[in-house]
Amino acid sequence: MAYVVTKACLGAKNRNCVEVCPVDCFYDIRKVKYNDMFDVPSDGKDGDPQVGMLMINPDECISCGACEGECPEQAIYEESLVPDKLQEFIGIAEEETTTLSTEELDNCRCTSK
Length: 113
Prior knowledge:
Elements: E1 3-5, H1 16-20, E2 26-29, H2 32-37, E3 53-56, E4 76-78, H3 88-98, H4 102-108, E5 109-110
Antiparallel strand pairs: 1-4, 2-3, 2-5
């Protein structure tokens, strides 16, 4: 099962998880709609670094779990263990990351390099 980044990443975007990911499956989705949906204040607009959140592409995640323990916000869960109140983040990550073109993926991919 893939890992899922949830609400606590909004407004934080700590990259400790990215640094330990062996497959670079994290993406910086810079959409203010997620801040608005989950009442996380932001002064930015789409594309600004401070809006949106990091997301894991479930098709690329190898389920190693390295990211989970590195997240100081405790925003990352194994998909089967995502709390009920955060379940919608599973679909959000899938919708956002699996529908991007190769160019779009390259533009928002987070790497440890």
